[in-house]
Amino acid sequence: MLDHVGLSVSDYANSKAFYDAVMPSIGAECVMAMTAEETGGTYEGSGYGLAGKPSFWIGSGDHSKGQVHIAFTAPSRAAVDAFYAAAIAAGARDNGGPGLRPHYHPDYYAAFVLDPDGHNIEAVCHTPE
């Protein structure tokens, strides 16, 4: 249903460094970046995704008020573990380490961190092992 989603971040360079370090753990990468010169103003943004299609964007601008929750699909439980480790190493705060969340369904394996702006970022795998 969704094509892409974007977050305004308070410190674009800091958030870009964070997501550049974290996204490869789930197989994603920065596939497009926009400079202020290209946008004709002050907006800078980076789009992360798979196979060249950006589906998650961060960008400069008025920072969102309140916490946003974004859940990324991970291809395996090991990728969820790698996502969590990469995020913590990149400065995220723990918001729920890797593990099963059977209250959602028996194979719901996820990890939650708070990104540099305090957004609740999750990696989730829905398959057994």
Summarize the structure in words.
The protein has 129 residues and is an alpha+beta fold. The chain has one domain (5-125): 2,3-Dihydroxybiphenyl 1,2-Dioxygenase, domain 1. Helices cover 22% and strands 34% of the residues. The protein has 3 helices and 9 strands; from the N terminus they run βαβαβββαββββ. Strands 5, 6, 7, 8 and 9 form a 5-stranded mixed β-sheet that branches. Strand 7 (99-100) and strand 8 form a beta hairpin. Helix 1 runs antiparallel to helix 3 (77-89). The radius of gyration is 15 Å and the shape is globular. The two termini are 27 Å apart. The model has no long low-confidence stretch (mean pLDDT 94). Residues 1-126 form the VOC domain. This is Glyoxalase.
Helices, strands, pairings?
Layout: E1 5-8, H1 12-22, E2 29-34, H2 36-39, E3 45-50, E4 53-59, E5 69-73, H3 77-89, E6 93-94, E7 99-100, E8 109-114, E9 120-125
Parallel strand pairs: 1-4, 5-9
Antiparallel strand pairs: 2-3, 3-4, 6-8, 7-8, 8-9
Helix pairs in contact: 1-3
User: Uncertain runs with pLDDT below 50, 5 residues or more?
Assistant: none
Helical residue percent? 10-25%
Class inferred from helices and paired strands: alpha+beta
How far apart lie the N and C ends? 27 Å
Average pLDDT, to the nearest integer? 94
Radius of gyration: 15 Å
CATH-level-4 superfamily name: 2,3-Dihydroxybiphenyl 1,2-Dioxygenase, domain 1
- How many helices? The count is 3
Instruction: Give the count of structural domains.
Output: 1
Organism: Ciceribacter naphthalenivorans
Domain VOC: 1-126
Pfam family, one: Glyoxalase
Protein name: Glyoxalase
